[in-house]
Amino acid sequence: MLSKIKAFLSFFFIFIIAISSYSQVVNSESTTQNLGPLTNENIDTYLSEYVKFESISGHEKEAGEWIKNICIENGLHIKQMGDTDGEYNFTASIYPLSSKLPNIVLLNHIDVVPAGDLSKWIEPPFSGKITETDIWGRGAWDNKGNAIMQLFSVVEILNKYKGKQLPFNVTFLAVSCEETQCRGGAEYVINNYLDELNPAVVLGEGPPAIKGALQTKPNKSVFPISVAHKRALWIKLKLNINTSAHGSVTPLRYANKEMVEALDNLLGKKQKAIYTDLNVKMLKEMGQLEKGLTGFAMRHPKLFRMFITPKLRQQPELFSIFSNTITLTSVDSMNDVVNVIPSEVTALLDCRLLPNSSKDEFLENIKKRLDNDDIEVSTIYSMPEMKSSDDESIYYKNLKKAILKNHTETDVITILLPNTSDAGLFRAKGIATFCTVPVNIEMSYLDNIHSENERIPRGILANGKNTYVDFIEECIKENPDSLSTVPLSVSN
Ligand SMILES: [Zn+2]
Fold it and tell me: Global pTM?
C-alpha cells in the first residue's frame, strides 16, 4: 500500500513539475518569440511592452508577472516576496539567494502614478508607442525604463559569466507601490527578507545627468549620485477657540484668524541656509567644474556664503538641500458656510530636515515662531535619522567609473536629495545605497515625469544598461581572487 502511495505521489510530483515547466515554456514562447532576445536592438521594444500594463500603485501583479516571466525565461533565479496586488515583489538573481553571497541589488518599482488628464496626452499613456524619436507612456521614465536597463544588465552578466563563481550575487529587485509608499512594497521586503537578500549595495532611482547645472559651462552635463536624503517630518497644527458662532459679530479671538496669523509668523520668515559637510562638498565639487570667479566662490562656500546664499534662494530645488523646509499643504476648518465661525482649525506642514538636523530643536523653533501657545503641535510622521552612504566606498567609486566610461563629456558629483524613494529604506538600515539613473537626458523630458506626456528618447537605454554592466564588472574586478571557474553547487 505504502509503495502504491509513494508511486502515486511521485507520479503526481512529476505531473506537477511537467505542468509548471509546461506553463513556463508557453510563457517563454509568448514573450521571447514576440520580442526577441535581450539585446540592444530590442531594448526599446521591451520597455514599450512593459509600459502597456496599467500598473498604477496597488495594481502591480499583471505587469509584475510579465517581467518576472522574462527573468525566468532568461535563466535568473526567482524569489517571490509577496504575490498580490499592492504586495507584489520579487527578486531575480544570477545565483539563488540561498547562496548567501554579498548581493549587488538593482532596485526598481513596478507601479506608476495615474495618467492624469487623458486629453493632454499626445500619445495615449499606456500605448507604449515608439515614434521616430521617443518611447511614450506612463512609467517610461519612472520607473520602468530604469527597470528594463537593470534587467538587461543582470541577464548580460549572467550570460557572460555562466559557469563561473563570482564573488557577488547580482539581483534585480522589483517592488510594488513605491509611489504611494504603501507597506507591501520595499518595506515588506525589508521587514521579511532582508537577511536572505543580503545586500552589499543597493542602486535605486535618482536623478539622471543634468545639463544646465553649471553656470559657466551650460552645455556640459553633470551626473549627480545621491548618497543621502532629507528626512520627512509631517506636522499637524490644531487650534480650538470657542466663540459665538455667528459671523455677524467679529469676536476678539477666533480660531481661523489666529491660525492665519501664526502661520504668517512661521512662513513669513525665510528659512536659514545651513551649510553641512555634504552640501559644502557638493558645492566644492561643482566649483571644480565651474570657471572663473563663480568657480572660485563655490570652492570656498563658507567664505563666500553672503554671495552664495542669495543665489541658492533663487532656485528652490537647490535651496532645499541647504535648508530645512516647511511647506504648508493644508488649512482646514471643516466649514464652507460663510456666516458661521468654526471653533477649530487644523493645518498640515510637510517639513524636510537635513540629515544632521535635530528634530526636537526644529520642533521647538516652530513652536517659538508660531507664537501662540494655544496651538497644539503634533507629529504625524517622522523618518528616522540615518547615516549618509559613504562616497569613498568602492561601490561609489565603481559607479562613478562606469558612468564616466559610458557618458563622456560629463562629470560626477555627490549630492543629497530633498526627497526620498524606496532606496532610502535600505539606507536607513545602514546599507550602502546610491541613487542615480545612468542616462543622459534633456531636462525637458523630466518635466513630464508624474505629469502628462511622460516619455524618454529612443536609444538611451542601451547606454544606461552598459553603465550598470560596467559597474557590476568593476565590482567583480575588485575581487579577482574569488573569481573561480567552479560553478556554484546550489543550482536552483
Ligand atoms: Zn519612481
Answer: 0.83
